[in-house]
Every structure is written in structure tokens, then in C-alpha cells.
Design brief:
Strand 6 and strand 7 form a beta hairpin. The chain has a four-stranded antiparallel sheet with strand order 2-3-1-4. Strands 6-7-5-8 form a four-stranded antiparallel sheet, with helices on one face. It is elongated. 29% of the residues are buried. The longest helix has 15 residues. It is built from five helices and eight strands; from the N terminus they run H-E-H-E-E-H-E-E-H-E-E-H-E. It has two domains: 107 residues, ACT domain (Alpha-Beta Plaits, 2-Layer Sandwich); 81 residues, ACT domain (Alpha-Beta Plaits), CATH 3.30.70.260. By secondary structure, it is α+β, with helices and mostly antiparallel strands. The chain is 26% helix and 30% strand.
Length: 208
């Protein structure tokens, strides 16, 4: 196993049964004695975790339980996502089939997968939201935008000059998957309609 980049406790990895114990499913042999269609390769997932004890270990379980061989963890403790959570990058070995199962398992457990393998947020768009952003729960708004899975909220800038009880504005920089910008914007529009917010999009030539 490669060096851990974040100095995570040894137990965080050993508890998953991934320290030097290769998964039979990753050896190239299938349970019936045949051979798997492809060999294991290295994959990377970028996760967003709540800053609470035990969250990292809980996020590693779906990886190990579904045949992933953990290699390294980069825990960005000094950095926070727009929702105040901690980004964590995990490298592991798995066959392509098991990789898809692992990503599905992570999402089923409620772990926000910001990036998986070669899945990149290749398109960027900046929008403005106007309205009672605080009263309608800005954290919930951001969480639901992320939940559409077409985009990630890369940056948020909130302006509330008249206080939290008056109309405020927020500039959001969204990173969308290639070809899915329209789907991401549609999700934002639907959410804005529900919360009676106004959307101005997209903004170009603006430094987010």
C-alpha cells in the first residue's frame, strides 16, 4: 500500500481489511475458477464529508466491502467545500465493474461523490441567485443543487447588505460534467421556482 498522504491513523485503513490483503475478486480470478474480464486498476474518488468523528471511516467501508483495495487517502483538513464540509481524495485498486459498484455504494450510503475516476466536471458556469436566501435555508439550497449529480458547487459568494431577513444575493460557480450544464441549470431553475428565488444565468467574463 502506498504512503498515506494525510497521515490518517493506521486503524482507519487496517479496519477495512485493506492493508496488504488482496481481495480475491481483484486477483483476476472469478468465484467459479474462471478469469475476470479485466485486471484491477487504480481509481480515485473525491468525497465531501461532514466534519464529524467517524465520517472518514464510515466512507471507507463501502470501498473495502465492495472489493476495493485501499492505497492512499488525502484528507484536506485545512480546506472546506462551499457547504462547510471536508474534501477527501481516496485512491484504491478495483476492476472496472467493482469500481462502478463502489461508487453506487458510496452514494447509497449518503456520501457525496464529487468526482469519480475519470469523471470530470469539465464545464463551468457562474450564476446569481436573488431572494430570501437565508430564510429559505441556503445550506439546503446548495445541498440540493449538489444532489442533482450533474454539477458541483465550486464556490459561493453571499451578499446580504440589509441583513439576513431581507433580500440577499449569492453568486454560485458551478462545475458541470461535460454535456450536462443544461441539466444542472434546469435543476437550479426548478429549485429557485420552488423557493421563489430569481436566477440570473449564465454569467460570462466574470471572475468567480
Amino acid at each position: 500500500m502506498s504512503d498515506r498522504r494525510d497521515g490518517a491513523p493506521e486503524t482507519a485503513l487496517d479496519a477495512e481489511g485493506a492493508a496488504g490483503e488482496p481481495d480475491p475478486a481483484d486477483s483476476g480470478a472469478s468465484p467459479d475458477g474462471g478469469h475476470a474480464s479485466t485486471a484491477p486498476s487504480t481509481h480515485t474518488v473525491r468525497l465531501e464529508l461532514v466534519d464529524e468523528p467517524g465520517q472518514l471511516l464510515a466512507a471507507l467501508h463501502p470501498i473495502a466491502d465492495n472489493g476495493g483495495n485501499l492505497l492512499s487517502i488525502y484528507h484536506e483538513r485545512g480546506n472546506k467545500t462551499p457547504r462547510g464540509r471536508i474534501p477527501v481524495e481516496v485512491d484504491f485498486e478495483a476492476t472496472p465493474e467493482r469500481f462502478e459498484e463502489i461508487v453506487d455504494a458510496l452514494r447509497s450510503e449518503g456520501v457525496n461523490v464529487m468526482q469519480a475516476g475519470t469523471e470530470r466536471y469539465a464545464e463551468e458556469v457562474t450564476i446569481l441567485l436573488f431572494g430570501h436566501l437565508i430564510d429559505t435555508d441556503l445550506s439546503d439550497t446548495l445541498s440540493r443543487i449538489e444532489a442533482c449529480e450533474s454539477a458541483s458547487v465550486a464556490d459561493v459568494s453571499l451578499a446580504a447588505p440589509q441583513g439576513t431577513e431581507e433580500v440577499s444575493s449569492a453568486r454560485l460557480r458551478l462545475e458541470a460534467r461535460a454535456g450536462e450544464t443544461d441539466a444542472a441549470l434546469a435543476a437550479v431553475r426548478e429549485l429557485a421556482d420552488e423557493k421563489e428565488l430569481r436566477v440570473v444565468e449564465p454569467l460570462t467574463g466574470v471572475d468567480a
